Structure prediction request, 335 residues.
Amino acid sequence: MKVSEFDYELPPELIAQEPVEPRDSSRLMVLHRSTRRIEHRIFWEIVEYLNPGDLLVLNVSKVIPARLFGKKKTGANIEILLLERVENGVWKCLVRPGQKVKKGVEIIINGDLSAVCIERSEDGTRIMEFHPKDDEIIFEKGRTPLPPYIKKEVPLERYQTVYAKEEGSVAAPTAGLHFTTELMDKLKEKGVEFAEVILHVGIGTFRPVKAEEVEKHKMHEEFYRVPRETVKKIEETRRKSRRIVAVGTTTVRTLETIARLPKREEYVGKTDLFIYPPFEFKLVDALITNFHLPRSTLLMLVSAFAGKDFVMEAYREAVKRRYRFFSFGDAMLIL
Prediction:
């Protein structure tokens, strides 16, 4: 399958540069897979589509202030993006421009913080040791790790879901940005159940698909955890023939990863699961997601879930109706 099959035309002005307020006032496109019907709603109306007993699964990973700016001793500007903690004060990073940061090179963040490259990896990442080796100090100096297509500065708390708990992501699981605590309370009042998973969004978010054929793309591993309580809720939901509704593609990848593993009380590990058409979904019955970049693995996952032709039709409709795209854009509910 060609990567070009997942391309589409997007006017640049439809790329959302800032989130709407309140969070749940974004638009919601509803896709009905069985009838190929498309509806146009507002996100807070999602209450109408979820039923008592449905299990809404959230990725509670929290975004860290992962962007740091410093200089070499020569005065050259360097940007560091934290990707994955190796140990306290030692991080796997992306650096820009990469060719200027060789092993042994020191980057001065400011007078109180510096970083030395202690290893270069084949995938282009660097292992950086910070001085002092204190993640709290590193985070104090860090900024919101917004995607490159967002040109405005946005506070970290607004690039964070209201239910985020565990630090570790370098990009937000953006489908969850539409939820408010009030909307979640309404869903709970209706009888919708909630469960939590963790998948820390990593380098895969920033790496485009360079292969011409989808099957040749390799996903980077990302850490995930599915706690015991969530495993029990999934089993109970299945037993009652209720729906499992995934909030975001990261939640889908987590659930479909554990669906392919031997049964356990809880799950912890790393996943490089790449979902593209055709794919047999074993746990996810419905999906809440955003509108994704052309040729991206996220668009391929959504196409596997709803059917490529239907999804591309929906994207053309979204462009026609001036939906807002990407991280701070509008949402899609696939039933």
Observations:
- The chain has a mean pLDDT of 95.
